[in-house]
């Protein structure tokens, strides 16, 4: 089984992925943030590095999905290949941080790759307001994220809402994280119950 967690920067994807993996004994697949050779450069000069970063993520997640399906294990994935293509790349293009030529090349590559993969059996979407995102981003204190602009987060949130409202690839679990703390056992058990209900409906 392939479960994926989607949501904006700072919505709690990595935390929830780790906690659910531990509870359900699933194998976690995290976003490759530490070894990403473009991330620091991207936040320093988005226009110069946006295409390189998006292609790196696309390649990395495509490999991940192929590995997940090949492994035959129960896996939970932190962020999906679809978020790059439907949220991050179009947003960079709309903000004039990625040229139309690069964007069209990227989308063509994504369309080809997505024809070879299956979507997750269950997608968990973490919805969060801007104040929640900002608070979480500040709390984890990643240096390269300090320069993230509020308007950038707001535009991403709008694109997430639009994507999720039109998501038809598989089962979807919607979790509003504004009043939840995944590290609080009571809050986590609420989420686990919801996930259980969805999983039981898969079999």
Major sheet strand order: 2-3-1-4-5
Question: Order of SSEs, N→C?
Answer: EHEHHEHHEHHEH
Query: CATH topology, which one?
Result: Rossmann fold
Which range does the strand content fall in? 5-15%
Q: How many H/I helices? A: 8
Annotated CATH architecture: 3-Layer(aba) Sandwich
**Rg:** 16 Å
- The count of domains is 1
Features:
single chain, 203 residues, alpha/beta, Rossmann fold, five-stranded parallel sheet, 57% helix, globular
3D structure, described in words:
This protein is 57% helix and 12% strand. A five-stranded parallel beta sheet has the order 2-3-1-4-5, with helices on both faces. The protein has one domain (2-200): Rossmann fold (3-Layer(aba) Sandwich), CATH 3.40.50. It is globular and about 45 Å long. It is an alpha/beta fold and 203 residues long.
In brief:
The protein is of the alpha/beta class and 203 residues long.
SSE layout:
Elements: E1 2-7, H1 13-24, E2 27-29, H2 39-44, H3 46-71, E3 75-78, H4 81-94, H5 100-114, E4 122-127, H6 130-140, H7 150-165, E5 171-176, H8 185-200
Parallel strand pairs: 1-3, 1-4, 2-3, 4-5
Helix pairs in contact: 3-4, 3-5, 4-5, 4-7
């Amino acid at each position: 089984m392939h479960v994926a967690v989607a949501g904006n920067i700072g919505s709690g994807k990595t935390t929830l992925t780790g906690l659910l993996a531990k509870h359900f004994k699933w194998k976690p697949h995290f976003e490759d943030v530490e070894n990403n050779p473009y991330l620091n450069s991207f936040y320093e000069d988005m226009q110069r590095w946006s295409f390189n970063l998006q292609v790196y993520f696309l390649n990395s997640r495509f490999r991940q999905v192929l590995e997940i399906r090949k492994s035959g294990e129960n896996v939970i994935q932190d962020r999906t290949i679809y978020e790059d293509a439907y949220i991050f790349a179009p947003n960079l293009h709309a903000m004039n941080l990625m040229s139309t030529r690069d964007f069209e090349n990227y989308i063509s590559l994504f369309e080809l790759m997505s024809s070879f993969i299956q979507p997750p059996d269950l997608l968990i979407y973490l919805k969060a307001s801007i104040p929640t995102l900002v608070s979480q981003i500040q709390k984890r204190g990643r240096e390269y994220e300090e320069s993230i602009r509020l308007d950038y987060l707001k535009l991403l949130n709008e694109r997430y809402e639009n994507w999720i409202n039109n998501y038809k690839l598989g089962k979807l679990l919607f979790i509003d994280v504004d009043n939840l703390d995944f590290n609080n056992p009571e809050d986590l058990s609420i989420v686990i119950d919801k996930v259980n209900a969805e999983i039981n409906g898969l079999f």
